[in-house]
Amino acid sequence: MEQEADAVRAAYISKSIVDQNHPKAKSQRFGTRHKSKSLAAVTHHTIKDEIRLRRTEIDIKGNIVRSDVGEFLKSQLCLQFGLHPRDLRKIDGGFSNQVPVILVRPEVIIVNMGHIRALIKADLIVLFDSPDSTDRVEDSPFVKYLQERLKMSMVQAGGQTFEFRALEAIFISTMGSLHSDMEILVKVVTRLLAHIEEEVDQFKLKEMLQYTKKISRFESKALLIREVFEELLEQDEDLAAMYLTEKKEGHPRAIDKHDEAEILLESYMKQVEEIVNVVTMVKHQAQSTEDYVNAILGAKRNQLLMFELRIALGTLGISSGALIAGLYGMNLQNYLEHDPHAFAIVSAFAVSLGATLFGTFVRKLRVLAVGAA
């Protein structure tokens, strides 16, 4: 019995070894191992807790205390500034199609407006930029202007605290950029419209089409910035929470005590509205010119159609006369060959028939053209 059991055990072990060496079994075993590695890689990529950007910190005295480029832990940034992970999407340049935003958090104000992305605290402002940027932070016109404003005393700044001076510097830079872009667009588009109204040129029309698209994009950009101001002005809690310095000192503002913040936001919202109005007016002028050009092109097209119809009617009249000539050109006796007046009579009839047909259709065509006008 023991010998039989040993024989069965040996057969089972040999079968297991054969099954493991089978190609299909190897592929399944190695496929599982590769699959587990790929899943681990995907999981590692999914939970990656890093954000790459250039970070510049300016303190309450207007001095640059830190400026570096690298990978920053999202969890560390959230812990340092009291943010939610979703808030970092507003300053992460890796997300495309970002819209302007001003978010008020308990300890920080998040600003993404135009070319500026920043976090504003009661005594510190952090600027974020693309890590691939080669410009020096110290040479940036905005950073220089921001430092000048932050170095002002409370009296020189009109009693504004640190956070409002930083905010106003961002607003001034954004408005300046919008004004500059608007003036360039308005100047070029106005010049193109004047040329097109004098003479419809194909190249000018193509150029006008490109600038019309630019105007639409600029208008959308300005409207989004205006919506940011409007939404913030409707939130009393956020307006009161913007007073970070007083909150840090232990004197948070009441919900209905935010006159300074409201006045500041309203003043710059009016500037954005003026820009939007100018751009909208120029856009309407471009649309009016487009309608004018379409009307001219439509009239030219109708003239060409009328000309083609007149040619077709003239061809019809000539063909009708040629038909009679063709009938008499057949080698058949018609007893008119020897008549001395037959040629003149037939020719006059053919010409009269063609002229009558042409005149009749031209008159009807003219009546139709007058009725359509």
TrEMBL record:
Topological type in the membrane: Multi-pass membrane protein
Predominant place of localization: membrane
Entries under CDD domains matching the protein: Mrs2_Mfm1p-like
Top-level taxon in the UniProt lineage: Eukaryota
GO cellular component, one term: mitochondrial inner membrane
Stored Gene3D superfamilies: 2.40.128.330, Magnesium transport protein CorA, transmembrane region (1.20.58.340)
Location relative to the cell: Membrane; Mitochondrion inner membrane
Keyword match Zinc: no
Protein's organism: Entomortierella chlamydospora
Protein family: Belongs to the CorA metal ion transporter (MIT) (TC 1.A.35) family.
Taxonomic placement: Eukaryota, Fungi, Fungi incertae sedis, Mucoromycota, Mortierellomycotina
Molecular function, one GO term: magnesium ion transmembrane transporter activity
Database matches in InterPro entries: MRS2-like
Alphabetized UniProt keyword annotations: Ion transport, Magnesium, Membrane, Mitochondrion, Mitochondrion inner membrane, Transit peptide, Transmembrane, Transmembrane helix, Transport
Parts of the chain that traverse the membrane: 309-330, 342-362
Protein name: Magnesium transporter
GO biological process: mitochondrial magnesium ion transmembrane transport
